[in-house]
Amino acid sequence: MTTTILVSGGAFAPYDVVVGRGLLKAAGAEVAALKPTRAFIVSDETVAAIHGETVRASLAAAGLATGMVTVPAGEASKSFEQLEAVLDRLLVEGLDRKSMVVALGGGVVGDLAGLAAALFMRGIDFVQVPTTLLAQVDSSVGGKTAIDTPRGKNLIGAFHQPRRVLADIEALATLPVRQVRSGWAEVLKHGLICDAAFFDWLGGEGAAGASGDPDALERAVIRSVEIKAQIVGEDEKEAGRRALLNLGHTFGHALEAELAFGDTLTHGEAVALGCAMAFRYSAQQSLCSAAEAERAEAGIRAAGLPTRLSDVDHNFAADALIARMAGDKKAEGGRLTLILARAIGDVFTDKNVDAGAVRAFLIGEGAA
Ligand SMILES: NC(=O)c1ccc[n+]([C@@H]2O[C@H](COP(=O)([O-])OP(=O)(O)OC[C@H]3O[C@@H](n4cnc5c(N)ncnc54)[C@H](O)[C@@H]3O)[C@@H](O)[C@H]2O)c1
Ligand SMILES: [Zn+2]
């Protein structure tokens, strides 16, 4: 049984996100249906070792000429160096304009392979086969592709929508539980943005998904992709509704940056904490009720994710966090842009947040 979610917007060719079990094994038939001249897998070394052969064999069984290039696992592979290596390999292999790139892996592989596909011969098709929860619910949908440079993350990239996304819940069985939880944070975020009933389910009956229960995961991925697809469909590039997907990310990104993007907090953990902070700040400003902020926090905690600065082994300084939130621009007496909440499932963009009020809030949260 699979579920298909259509992603469509004015500016790009509509495509299906297929969610279910056994999709790695069915990848050959799924890709062959798109009629490429051949299919070439881009993966990372960890994922290739676990799932590479399943997908390669499936493509071959469907009659597709195929092969695979791998990059080292980890964020460092979102680099010019690895982009060049992947593109060079596609040239050496003799791919043409009708060839298909198959991105098999987490968000790192999806972003890198997607950008390579966007650039190769001015753009060829690609299929996303996301193998992390984060990639299934977030990075594989929406068409953003990118690499990092020493000057910052995701600064070089392109919009390039996939032709199809194959989200195999079984692929998540080998994912370390901390990675599952981190993806769960983005799932919770989707509930907080626009579906209170879903959020309550995630913190209650569905909570087992956060530790890998496949039935709960499947339902969570389906609803999450529906929400992201709807928002992206309304607004592929603009900062309108799509900006709501940044809930928890301005606080979260500041925390990650202060920790030098190390191992102390994963991106998802930072987003979880950032969402809890956005709700508490909203409550402090009387935009939403304190009870609502507590309910948001309880749902996040139910997944074993952090909600308080005291959950993190680091002394944060309010001024440093504000500087990060302002994008390192001078924020004194300045204004910040934050996604704030009226209630769970009802959030909005405020481009005129008083940095001084946020500073006071951060000190109340335990920052120095
Ligand atoms: N394009 C977008 O819209 C978008 C959105 C959110 C995040 N991102 C990007 O996504 C990246 C993070 O993605 P991620 O969290 O998936 O990280 P990742 O791709 O680095 O994967 C995390 C780790 O899990 C391993 N792994 C992947 N699948 C596995 C599996 N099934 N079993 C065992 N191990 C597995 C990987 O080898 C890696 O070591 C960041 O670079 C971020 O910028 C992009
Ligand atoms: Zn995120």
List the helices and strands and how they pair.
Layout: E1 2-9, E2 12-20, H1 27-32, E3 39-44, H2 45-61, E4 66-71, H3 80-92, E5 100-105, H4 107-119, E6 125-130, H5 133-139, E7 144-149, E8 152-159, E9 164-168, H6 177-194, H7 196-203, H8 214-234, H9 249-258, H10 267-284, H11 290-301, H12 318-325, E10 335-343, E11 346-354, H13 355-364
Parallel strand pairs: 2-9, 3-4, 3-5, 5-6, 6-9
Antiparallel strand pairs: 1-2, 7-8, 10-11
Helix pairs in contact: 3-4, 5-6, 5-8, 6-7, 6-8, 6-10, 7-11, 9-10, 9-12, 10-11, 12-13
Zinc ion (ZN) is lined by residues 138, 186, 249, 267, 271.
Question: Uncertain runs with pLDDT below 50, 5 residues or more?
Answer: none
**The top level CATH class name of the largest domain:** Mainly Alpha
Largest sheet: 7 strands, mixed
What is the strand tally? Answer: 11
How many domains? The number is 2
Task: Note the run of SSEs as H and E.
Answer: EEHEHEHEHEHEEEHHHHHHHEEH
The CATH level-2 architecture of the largest domain is identified as Up-down Bundle
Mean pLDDT: 95
Give the DSSP E fraction (strand runs of 2 or more residues): 15-25%
